[in-house]
UniProtKB/TrEMBL annotation:
It comes from the Bacteria. Pfam families: Abhydrolase_1. InterPro entries: AB_hydrolase_1 (IPR000073), AB_hydrolase_fold (IPR029058), AB_hydrolase_sf (IPR050266). Residues 167-285 form the AB hydrolase-1 domain. This is Alpha/beta fold hydrolase. It comes from Nocardioides plantarum. Keywords: Hydrolase. GO terms for molecular function: hydrolase activity.
Length: 431
């Protein structure tokens, strides 16, 4: 779709968010959105709205969306992978500048320019909400529990709500924490049927690194064995009676791995955007987030960009806040497992869904939908009895950015799983 450059420049010059995100930046950005090409002169966040002679400047940043790609992005309802600059880089969108010193510190700005370009071209507006959907029942209780794994004692924070007979344990995404489930814990219907628990894994959220870990002397890295021990240790320490495990993203991977290796600890699992294996993403450069020049804000900006395009803006912004408020090293440490430590071709045969049922819920706009050979559909095709459900219109962070859209899928999955376990009788859970 054709974009009027002068109109977009005027909008960019008046955008208050962009001014904040570009604070302390001085230079010229060459923006190419399809056939529309223009330069932005930026001085400490102030964007010059007038056109400049491209031959007279040497741009510090080149932001390019090729014409064929722009035509797929600049539509009211783009297909998966074309919703934002972050995902569009898989298909040829580029940010030409030094990653740690120019791209990462201002990543939210570069993403914002493209987002405003699409909004200007198609007239898209952000969805808003006036209040939290379950504010009247938002009454979780937070506490700590101590337990040891591999000779380190962890002080782990969690929140609990509800009074139902079946416990459900929620695990957050990579580099985040249990605040992502605040809407789920406040859902009055779920509170009636389940006891809801959201954990901050060690090193995440309010769960500080354990004393004696000397985490500041090393690159943090978390593998599958350690993550599973953190979860099973928590279940034992809190006395939860074989909860249903629900995890998103890195937690979605762990859902199936727990079914394979610790079926005695859980009744079943729901993996949100969990995959079968990660071969399609083997080239992901996880170490770039370990560069000390890259702050947590770069992770937060990236995650905000891939939140649901139709999710309420306030809740999408919460995702960015949660990521930015966690330690920068937590995200790549979790990703060591998410990207490189999960492969059900190796141990998926250990999953017995007759004993430990497994459901994968994947957002229609989750980036994994681009790789059917290794996403949740491949998991269901290769693990007998595993269930794969696509959630139309939803994306990667659906438990937190679109809680009302996520609600029916989660409720249905939990209710089906509980009914199947009860129908199977008491012998089902026997080791």
């Amino acid at each position: 779709m054709t974009l009027e450059g002068a109109q977009l420049r005027t909008r960019l010059a008046g955008d208050r968010e962009l001014a904040v995100r570009l604070r302390a930046f001085h230079g010229t950005v060459r923006v190419t959105l399809g056939e529309t090409v223009f330069d932005l002169v930026i001085d400490d966040g102030a964007v010059t709205p007038t056109d400049v002679d491209p031959s007279a400047v040497d741009p510090a940043v080149g932001l390019t969306i090729p014409a064929e790609l722009w035509d797929l992005m600049a539509v009211p309802h783009p297909q998966v992978g074309f919703e934002c600059l972050t995902s569009a880089q898989v298909f040829g969108a580029t940010i030409e500048a030094d990653w740690p010193t120019v791209v990462a510190p201002y990543l939210g700005a570069w993403n914002r320019i493209v987002r405003l370009g699409v909004e200007t071209a198609v007239g898209r507006t952000e969805r808003t909400v006036e209040a939290d959907p379950f504010a009247d029942s938002d009454d979780p209780v937070g506490r700590y529990v101590r337990y040891s794994v591999d000779d380190l004692e962890y002080r782990v924070y969690y929140e609990q709500a509800g009074r139902g007979p079946v416990p459900v344990l929620f695990m957050h995404t990579a580099g985040a924490d249990g605040r992502q489930y605040r809407h789920v814990l406040a859902d009055p219907e779920l509170q009636e049927r389940y006891t809801l628990v959201a954990i901050d894994l060690p090193y995440h959220g309010k769960s500080l690194p354990p004393v004696g870990s000397r985490w500041w002397e090393q690159d943090l890295t978390f593998d599958k064995t350690l993550l599973m021990r953190w979860v099973t240790g928590f279940i034992t320490a809190t006395g939860l009676d074989r909860p249903i495990f629900v995890g998103c993203s890195v937690g979605g991977q762990l859902a199936s791995d727990l079914c394979a290796h610790h079926p005695d600890s859980i009744r079943g699992a729901v993996g949100v955007n969990g995959l079968y294996h990660m071969d399609s993403w083997a080239g992901f450069d996880n170490d770039r987030f370990r560069d000390p020049r890259v702050a947590a804000g770069a992770v937060g900006s990236t995650m905000f960009d891939v939140t649901g395009a139709d999710a309420p803006e306030d809740f999408r912004r919460e995702v960015e806040w949660i990521y930015t408020s966690n330690h920068r090293d937590a995200y790549p440490a979790d990703n060591d497992y998410f990207m490189f430590g999960h492969d059900l071709r190796v141990d998926g045969h250990l999953i017995d869904t007759a004993r430990t049922p497994l459901t994968i819920l994947t957002g229609e706009h989750d980036i994994s939908m681009l790789t059917p050979d290794d996403n949740g559909s491949a998991l269901a095709a290769n693990i007998p009895g595993a269930e794969f459900i696509v959630m139309p219109g939803l994306s990667h962070f659906t438990p937190s950015d679109d809680p009302e859209g996520f609600r029916p899928y989660l409720t249905s999955a939990l209710d089906r799983m509980t009914a199947a376990i009860e129908a199977a009788g008491p012998d089902r859970s026997a080791p």
